[in-house]
Amino acid sequence: MNTAAHSDTRIAIVTGAAGGIGWATAQRLAADGCQLAILDLDGDAATQRAQELGPGHFGTGCDVASESSVQAAIAKVMTRFGRVDTLVNNAGIGDQSTGTIEQTAEGFDRVLSVHLRGTFLVSRDVGRIMLDQGAGAIVNLSSIAGLAGIPGRNAYAAAKAGISAMTRSMACEWARRGVRVNAVAPGYVRTVLVEKLEHDQALDTEAIAARTPMGRLARPEEIAQAIQFLVSEQSSFITGTTLNVDGGWLALGAPESALEAGAH
Ligand SMILES: NC(=O)c1ccc[n+]([C@@H]2O[C@H](COP(=O)([O-])OP(=O)(O)OC[C@H]3O[C@@H](n4cnc5c(N)ncnc54)[C@H](O)[C@@H]3O)[C@@H](O)[C@H]2O)c1
């Protein structure tokens, strides 16, 4: 049954929205009047999050790396809402926690599968719907790792660079049919995962903050704000771009000490 209340209610899919940046984005888009479809590998958490947002929102399990799982989830969204205006391809996993020499081919494939194949599969199925509608906006999650080297994160970096490349090709392919495609490239974001790594002393967030021109990590809401801008009419002439949301991380081409020197 199509339960969309009004044709002017925007329907937004956010993948991987059970936590972190995805959940912050879902909350932001809901506050902006969208009805949310939360797709996550953890189906129970997706349903729970939709309930937290209130009546009219929807959550379901979906493995973005699986073609049949994506098709089934998008079919459910269409049965429920009958259209899709916004897609945020956010679902992701970390890289293998070891250097390149010790990494396995299976681990490499898994990282590319979730990020790159996942973004392709969901974009393809939602793209068909948006092209039929003649309107839609997609935002993909890239990363500073796709634009600058981070030791040991080669699969993740390749996936994120691929996502920015795919963003450009899909944007050009669909631009004359009313569908915009952009990406955001976050720097380090203070999510629950990052806080746990910090607590376990597996990530030196003090050093990261010191290397960041703005002197701190991002809050998930700050990435969500950039995503909201890129799916809104405020960005109506922007397509094919990757917007860095990194506190200046990629802009820095000098030693960290220059940040202090420049502040005086
Ligand atoms: N946190 C950061 O510092 C940071 C920086 C740059 C980019 N990113 C990117 O932002 C996105 C979100 O990151 P986060 O830190 O919020 O992550 P997170 O681990 O907090 O959340 C990721 C979500 O994706 C879901 N997920 C994982 N595999 C999935 C699959 N196969 N199908 C569907 N859902 C799946 C998880 O269940 C989880 O809810 C990712 O694409 C990540 O690469 C994060």
Q: H/E order of the elements?
A: EHEHEHEHEHEHHHEH
**Distance separating the two termini:** 62 Å
**Domains (count):** 1
Q: Please write the CATH class name.
A: Alpha Beta
Q: Count the E strands.
A: 7
Uncertain segments of ≥5 residues (pLDDT<50)? 1-5
Assign an overall shape.
globular
Bound molecules: nicotinamide-adenine-dinucleotide
User: Which fold name corresponds to the CATH topology?
Assistant: Rossmann fold
Count of discrete alpha- or pi-helical segments spanning 4 or more residues: 9
Class computed from helices, strands and strand pairing: alpha/beta
Oligomer state equals: single chain
Strand order of the largest sheet: 3-2-1-4-5-6-7
CATH architecture: 3-Layer(aba) Sandwich
CATH superfamily: NAD(P)-binding Rossmann-like Domain
What do the pLDDT scores average to?
95
Biggest β-sheet description: 7 strands, parallel
What is the rounded Rg?
A: 18 Å
What's this model, at a glance?
This protein has 264 residues and is an alpha/beta fold.
Task: Describe what you observe in this structure.
The chain is an alpha/beta fold and 264 residues long. The chain has a single domain (11-188, 219-246), classed as 3-Layer(aba) Sandwich (Rossmann fold), CATH 3.40.50. It has helices at residues 20-31, 43-53, 67-81, 105-133, 154-174, 192-199, 205-211, 220-231, 257-263; strands at residues 11-15, 35-40, 58-61, 86-89, 136-141, 179-186, 242-245. Strands 3-2-1-4-5-6-7 form a seven-stranded parallel beta sheet, sandwiched between helices. Strand 4 (86-89), helix 4 and strand 5 form a beta-alpha-beta unit. The longest helix is centred in the middle third of the chain and has 29 residues, at 105-133. Residues 1-5 have low confidence and may be disordered. The chain binds nicotinamide-adenine-dinucleotide. Nicotinamide-adenine-dinucleotide binds next to helix 1, helix 4 and helix 6.
